[in-house]
């Protein structure tokens, strides 16, 4: 049997989190030197209230906690495990889980493969969605599934998002190749994606969020042009009515493409720290060519 271990930054929807063969290890949100487990010990509202005046931080879970996630699957009879994490270009999460997997393999007769998704949020989550599909079909060997997932992450997953401010990405050192001097006073908003190295970069710029969201859709449509769509995800951060309206407009447009699966959700607290409220993003998993 094959299991999955991942971090909370993959933003898996509840129906995937709750699968018997999935374990999600929470990242940490740090407020005034006090650490909270993402999704368990701190709410979105509490975090957004804090962010009105201060800049929170994030940190990794202890390696022992990651190892416990692997062991909990092993004790259920899973002898092959795939670890999938948010981009190593944006976080130390992948390297932590890789080391934890290596440590567990020294103690147990199991196979653990670590995969750097080179993506973030539900972009990484869609790779897990694909992994679960392959596992459930029970037609591929463990090594073949790992090889297939590495092919998928190269060019079959696209992520595009717009955010009202770069303040938090800049403060957290997650700015990547996005210019931190994009004209805030001129209301210039970047449309951000993730490159082949798993690092943020700007794919377009627009004046105002309304136009930026339209550009997000344009980039998505270009990415999926003439291709089948296995899954599409629309994610937001915060509870602003305008943000929710943008998400609904995107979902209506994307439904016209007849994707096999549409997922919706919100950023985990660990990612909200770096994005702030008002993010509107789309992740796409396209089918075989």
Automatic annotation (TrEMBL):
Coiled coil location: none
Molecular-function GO terms, alphabetical: lipid binding
Pfam family, one: DegV
Gene3D superfamilies, sorted: 3.30.1180.10, 3.40.50.10170
UniProt keyword terms in alphabetical order: Lipid-binding
InterPro entries on file: DegV, DegV_C, DegV_domain_contain
The organism's place on the tree of life at top rank: Bacteria
Name of the protein described by the UniProt record: DegV family protein
Organism: Kosmotoga olearia (strain ATCC BAA-1733 / DSM 21960 / TBF 19.5.1)
Classification lineage: Bacteria, Thermotogati, Thermotogota, Thermotogae, Kosmotogales
